Amino acid sequence: MKIFVAGASGVIGRLLLPQLVQAGHEVIGMTRKEEQRQAIEKTGAKAILADVFNREQMVDILTEVKPDVVIHQLTSLSQGSSAENARIRIEGTRNLVDAAKQAGVQKIIAQSISWAYEPGSTPATEETPLDIYAPMPRNTTINGVVALEEAVKEIPEHVILRYGTLYGPATWYAKNGDTAQKIMNHEIKATDGVSSFVHVEDAANAALKALDWPVGTYNIVDNEPAKGIDWLPVYAQALVAPSPDIQSGASSWERGASNHKAKNTCSWIPQYPTWRTGFAKSLQ
User: Fold this and answer.
1) What is the pairing mode between strands 216-220 and 165-167?
2) What residues make up the domain containing 84?
3) Would 121 be classed as within a structural domain?
4) Per-residue pLDDT reduced to its tens digit, 226-239
5) pLDDT tens digits, one per residue of 197-223
């Protein structure tokens, strides 16, 4: 198949591209940074420089490429701005989807998140409503997720991957990542809030396998949602960082997510089934 990957130089895209090429697909990787062109081409993919906020440019590119599948891995996380990330989910996705529709694309696979669900006391499933009444600033993130997912569903064969918190190479949880540095500096407290993690290699693998998955939304998380008081000390130990301070309480939406649907419907099996062993392996 001919596959167009938007966000090809991101933490998931850079792992996904060589897998797609190795599987025999013709891959076109989009990035807005000239300095990423060579890295994309080294994977065996073709590189295209483009700005997803330039609607006409996106239409022209996809009309020319005419891919069979679009994979949407666009984010804007480098500055840690939820507003910028929401903008790319809203405006960027709109432009990408409209361009795909004009090019006759029938399938899209898109990155979403698994911590956008409404408050609850158990891990969220894909049937759990999103937290559309969340107060600011969380509402900025939720609005972006809702807009992205609604736009993506306009493509007939859509697969939405709601990723857990990413860890592994080039993520915030890598040795030189933002979260790692904050934990090394003793700036983050362990709370009762529940998180679901996914190793970046499992996230990329899910995007590859989703080429054959049925239409739907899937939580892509490991097998063990966990409270901060459980996972943070394990991560700090793997990082050789000071033990975190404990702070009682949690936000009501910090509930984690279930991966039962992806495992049972699509036979997805994470290579890193739990953060308990994944943290240490990823920091070796």
Assistant:
1) unpaired
2) 2-170+198-223+256-272
3) yes
4) 999 999 999 999 99
5) 999 999 999 999 999 999 999 999 999
- Of 164, 149, 143, 129, whose CA–CA distance to 262 is shortest? 164
Which among 235, 228, 236 has a CA at the least distance from the CA of 195? Answer: 228
Q: At what angle do helices 200-209 and 13-22 cross, to 10 degrees?
A: 40
Look at the pTM and tell me if it is higher than 0.85: yes
Residue 27 DSSP class: E
Could you give the 3-state DSSP secondary structure of residue 205?
helix
Where do we find the tokens 């895209």?
Answer: 13
Q: E-assigned strands of the chain?
A: 2-6, 26-31, 46-49, 69-72, 107-113, 157-163, 165-167, 194-195, 197-199, 216-220, 226-227
In a domain, residue 183? The reply is no
- Residue 84 sits at the vertex; the CA angle it makes with 45 and 176, to the nearest 5 degrees, is 65
Closest CA to 11 of 65, 60, 73: 73
CATH of residue 152: 3.40.50.720
| Residue-wise pLDDT tens digits, 50-60 | 999 999 999 99
Categorize the per-residue pLDDT at 284 as very low, low, confident or very high, splitting at 50, 70 and 90. Answer: confident
Is residue 47 domain-resident?
Answer: yes
Q: How many domains does the chain have?
A: 1
Any domain includes 202: yes
Q: Per-residue confidence at 166, pLDDT binned at 50, 70, 90? A: very high
CB atoms within 10 A of CB 99: 25
